Structure formats: C-alpha cells, structure tokens
User: Which sequence fits this backbone?
C-alpha cells in the first residue's frame, strides 16, 4: 500500500483575491473619451484595503479548530492504514517462510498467494476511500472558511465603504501602504462571531 499523504489545502480557501465591495456594474474598456475623465475621478475616489491571508490562517480560531480536527483525522487514517500494511507484511512473511519450509502444497500456496493479493487490493481501496473522504471534508471546511470571511466582510463593509478588499498572501501584492491593512480588525471580528465548531460561523 502506498503511503497516504493528506494536507489541508489553503490555496483555494479564499476566492477573495480581489473582492469588489460596491456592487456597481463594471465599465466597458471600449468607452469613448468623453467618459474617461469620470473614470479617472472614480478611481481617485476608490477606497481600498487588504487582509493578510496568513494571519487569518494562524489567528482565526475557527481555522485553528479545523486544523486540530483534521490533523487528528489524518493521524487516525495513517494509523489504520499502517495497521493494515503491517498485518499484510506479516502475513506475506509467514507465507514466505512456509514456502521455504515446504509447509504448503502447491494448491494451498496458490490459494494463500491469491488471498494476499486480494488483501493488498483491499488495502489500496481502503486508502483511496479514506483519502477521498478526507479531501471531501477538507473541501467542506475550506468552503465554510471562505463563506465565513465573505459574509463577515459584507457586514463589515456596510460602514467602511471600501471599493475593494484584497487578499494579500506572499508577494501577490507588490506594494501596499500599511495604512490599508485591516487584517487585525477582520481577525478580531471573525473571532468575535465564531461560536465553536458546532455552530455556524
């Protein structure tokens, strides 16, 4: 059986790479020159903020709880698969010893070998099933995280009136004035709203 490797995917947790917060229709790039002045004025009036994604991942209690939960599930999966693998390896070793000591008839040896192959296939199927179930659960929590953040920002922005709230992760934003950073406010707000894993975020 192949070793299972399961990790939480955070790359897809936010679809808020660039979140528009004013619900106004987008302008067509082919507008004539008579409208360009108004576009420039509109851009000058834009209010932009950003949130550090890494800080949300490390400080939002919901995500801390998710990580703890999923790490426990991953450990249980690894333990289950390792137990199956060790059992199969022991059976294979016993079979090999039996062959060397002429313990089995030809028919018995073929039957045992077929049974070992079946156990190996069942182990692979178990690994695939557990992996699929795990990844499905990860996707569910990722979606819940994204929904939680988007819902919070929608409420938060009713008063703040930002035009755009960007997700900053690594170097995806080349420059940003620190005054635009609303991460602490967002994290504090998310944690205040969070009531535990058994409740909606």
Assistant:
């Amino acid at each position: 059986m192949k070793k299972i490797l399961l990790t939480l995917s955070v790359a897809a947790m936010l679809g808020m790479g660039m979140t528009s917060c004013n619900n106004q229709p987008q302008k067509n790039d082919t507008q004539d020159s008579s409208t360009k002045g108004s576009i420039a004025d509109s851009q000058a009036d834009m209010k932009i903020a950003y949130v550090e994604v890494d800080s949300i991942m490390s400080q939002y209690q919901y995500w801390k709880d998710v990580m703890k939960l999923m790490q426990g599930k991953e450990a249980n999966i690894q333990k289950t698969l390792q137990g199956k693998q060790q059992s199969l390896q022991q059976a294979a070793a016993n079979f090999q010893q039996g062959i060397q000591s002429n313990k089995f008839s030809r028919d018995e040896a073929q039957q045992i070998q077929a049974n070992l192959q079946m156990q190996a296939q069942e182990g692979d199927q178990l690994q695939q099933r557990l992996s699929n179930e795990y990844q499905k659960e990860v996707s569910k929590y990722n979606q819940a995280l994204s929904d939680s953040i988007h819902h919070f920002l929608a409420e938060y922005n009713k008063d703040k009136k930002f035009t755009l709230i960007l997700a900053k992760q690594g170097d995806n934003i080349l420059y940003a004035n620190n005054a635009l950073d609303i991460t602490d406010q967002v994290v504090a707000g998310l944690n205040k709203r969070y009531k535990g894993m058994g409740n909606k975020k």
User: Anything to note?
Assistant: The chain has five helices and three strands.
